[in-house]
Amino acid sequence: MPDVSIDLPAPDLSDDAAARDAVLDNAAWSSLTGPHAAFAIGGDLARRYPDDVAPFVAVRTWDDPAVWDALREIVDAGEQFGLSGFDGELPAGWEFVGGGDGVQLIETPVLSTRPDEEAVELGADDVDDMLAIVARNQPGPFRPRTHELGRYIGIHRGGRLVAMAGERLHPAGWTEISAVAVDEDHRRQGLASRLVLDVAFHIQQRGDRALMHAAASNTGAIAAYERLGFALRRRTRFSSVRAPQ
């Protein structure tokens, strides 16, 4: 990935910070065993979100081969789902569908958050519009109940939802900003930045810190988030896997 970094305060690398931030190493698992436990399907080794909420499946550790049996118990035969952090060999019957390198960004003290006067909160009545803007812009997975994971906001122009952002994964002490989408004819107006700063503002008001994920190839978005005050914490691998039939 090209170097798109700019000068920002480095993340806190103290022992206390490392312990606090460890939940981010397995963010989906930390969410499903923590603040999002009410959504979780599964047990001690593997958990998932309901399919209409998010296509994410997580395991406690890839070092335990028993996780594959645990996964078989919570996914349907032939189901395709997303995994993070797995870069090993799949057991027989499991199929690698696709994937790519990603980055995890976390807020730094440079991030200056603020509410946005034009943004409105989105909910169940807006699901069709939310799914439509995601389909037009492809910011990442978004399902009919994804909005239940946190607070989602949008900007309307001419009666149409043209920009959106919201909250997804929720490791203890952190909230992920996700589904940042702006229609093509409304880009380069600062709408994405405004929504990210609004979402981050309300995250901080709850006492959490903001994080983001992006495809490593999406250098433009990464650079934009760095300019706002996010910094690279780690690189990771995102995979799409299909369960045995």
Can you walk through the features of this model?
- The protein has 245 residues and is α+β, with helices and mostly antiparallel strands.
- It folds into 2 domains: 15-101, no CATH class; 105-234, Gcn5-related N-acetyltransferase (GNAT) (Aminopeptidase, 3-Layer(aba) Sandwich), CATH 3.40.630.
- It has 6 helices and 11 strands.
- The strands form 2 sheets. It has an 8-stranded mixed beta sheet with strand order 4-11-5-10-9-8-7-6, sandwiched between helices. Strands 1-2-3 form a 3-stranded antiparallel beta sheet.
- The relative contact order is 0.22.
Shape: globular
**Main CATH class of the largest domain:** Alpha Beta
Report the strand count.
Answer: 11
Mean pLDDT: 93
Return Rg in Å: 18 Å
Distance between the termini: 36 Å
Question: Residue share in helices?
Answer: 10-25%
- Main sheet record: 8 strands, mixed
CATH architecture of the largest domain: 3-Layer(aba) Sandwich
Strand content: 25-35%
> What is the spatial order of strands in the main beta sheet?
4-11-5-10-9-8-7-6
* H/E topology pattern: HHEEEHEEEHEEEHEHE
Give start-end ranges of low-pLDDT stretches.
1-6
Determine the CATH superfamily of the largest domain. Gcn5-related N-acetyltransferase (GNAT)
Domain count: the total is 2
